[in-house]
């Protein structure tokens, strides 16, 4: 189930990359999903307006349970949303999607300190510290994007609901990185 769903999403991504996304009957789908939702994936992604999982995977209404914030990080509330997606909506996939040139990761790299944005920066800071070795800035930021996705995956695995679903093989956690040319890279399964 998990691998079939992943294949379906990656096929949708190929259509998105090629600019061949499918025609959607949103009105019909809206009617069809009125009584309930059975999404394919719970996706934690960045709020970046260019990172839209429904488009990226060429999916329809009712197919992606999205949790978005700047930097695709997780607080208790986001973990709670993921637990709902996995434990109650039974999505076979739990995806953590970072993306290239992420503004939140860049802010963490630069040590940006401003109002509540600092809270986001502090969450990403340990991942930045792991990769910041005086190398090239843009390359270290991209490394931090990947480290951040992996750190979020580890946090999700600590949730008892997610862990149980993993143990029972009902869900797969997948780390991904999105590129602005439309491509998705699976960075960790
Ligand atoms: Zn971002």
Please provide a written account of the structure.
The protein has 189 residues and is an alpha/beta fold. It contains eight helices and five strands. It has a five-stranded mixed beta sheet, with helices on both faces. Zinc ion is lined by residues 46, 48, 71, 99, 102-104.
Give the tags:
globular; Beta-carbonic Anhydrase, Chain A; 5-stranded mixed sheet; 16% strand; 189 residues; 8 helices; alpha/beta; binds zinc ion
In short:
By secondary structure, the protein is α/β, with parallel strands linked by helices.
Topology:
Layout: H1 2-18, H2 26-32, E1 41-46, H3 53-56, E2 64-69, H4 76-87, E3 93-99, H5 103-110, H6 117-131, H7 137-157, H8 160-167, E4 172-178, E5 184-188
Parallel strand pairs: 1-2, 1-3, 3-4
Antiparallel strand pairs: 4-5
The chain binds zinc ion.
Zinc ion binds next to helix 5.
What molecules are bound to this protein? zinc ion
Mean pLDDT: 97
Instruction: Tell me the helix content.
Output: 40-55%
Q: Give the overall shape, derived from the CA principal axes.
A: globular
Number of strands: 5
Number of domains: 1
> Structural class of the helix and strand makeup?
alpha/beta
Query: In percent, how much strand structure appears in the residues?
Result: 15-25%
Order of helices and strands: HHEHEHEHHHHEE
Low-confidence stretches: none
CATH superfamily: Carbonic anhydrase
Intertermini distance? 15 Å
What is the count of DSSP helices, taking H or I runs of 4+ residues? 8
